[in-house]
Amino acid sequence: MKGTSRIETPSYVCGNCGHRSAKWMGFCAQCRNQEALVETAAPRRSRQTVVVESVTAAPSAVRDRHPVGIGELDRVLGGGIVPGSVLLVGGEPGIGKSTLILQAADRIAGSDGSVLYTTAEESVHQIQLRARRIGVTSPGIEVASVYDVDDIIAAAGERHPGVLIVDSIQMVSSAQVGGTVGGTAQVRESAARLIAFAKSSGVPLILVGHVTKDGSIAGPRTLEHMVDVVLYLEGDSDQGLRFLRGIKNRYGSVNEIGVFSMTQQGLEEVPDPSGLLTSQRDASAPGSVLFPTVEGKRPMVVEVQALVVATDMPQPRRAVTGLPTVRVHQIIGVLERHAALPLRSFEVYVSVMGGVKISEPAADLPVALAIASAFGEYSLGHTAAYGEVGLTGEIRPVVRAGVRNAEAERLGSGPIISPERQGRLVDAMIASGFTSARSTG
Asked: What global pTM score does this model have?
């Protein structure tokens, strides 16, 4: 009868992205891979019993979170790790992902039992050397060098650890799936099997992921949707600062940030990032201003610096670090139009010190004051500023003004220039000490 046939018809699968086609082709129509599709039989689904419960029924067991024991990590996680949850930690090579995860494993194994650390990139000896270097002392961490996802699940099923760690998901593969290791099909299938094991067993799963050149986690974009928590570790490797950002969290707030300092003994917590980020600031230097930013619920004072240099080039250079380049270009245009600063004949460099990345519009005003200070060659002292600058030269209010003021005052900053005190950019420049421009001749 038409539509009721259960005969399994063969299909053709791309080994790179896993795209399935009803007919053979010499390339993949989805990812444009030039390898021919491989014939495979569609697997028969086994019927499973579906458990249906009332939405008002009381839960049979409370699945509470367990603190890791590292304050900055617990802050980003929202208090700890939830049983059966899946965490994805991404970051550039050498930024400290494996070090952070190994330190977390040491704290977890010291309080909640064993941790199974599976590595597909390094040998067991390499993990042991890192553990000695950073001072890992807990005997409850078991390490295995394994590449097959089924072997990882089998080992975790036998030991039932407190936490399962897979480093990294892009190097794990399955013999039942075609394609190269790290390809879309392999990463998606391996992650799906590991996540299914974590949900059914209640064992928390931590996946370490590589990032691409544009900063996103390598593999299928659906990988970030499959997990419960996505964390990014980033920072300035020259200064040793590391920032752990919560991009997604089904069990807590997002956009939280944890601050660490990389040392010979591993990552150390930074409980007062404002004091650390401003400790080397020269308050007498032109072009430097303090900016009280808010990351999630956490206020943090950073230093914004600007440098203005005369040039004969027809198109002066604009270099920006740690801020959206488009917004800095807008601020330069506003300064030219409403403050009569002839920046078209000057190169402008703007940077947030310490490797911090700022995306909120509240950074507009400190950027404008830093550029004006560098142009006018005068010092802003301990001035702090925040506010969004409009294209017509007005300063608009931003969220969490009270928290910003309190953090700036805690560090002894002053005066504080804000939308509540100055409504126009020109008024804010005058309040900061701007009186005259340098000679352009």
From this structure: 0.78
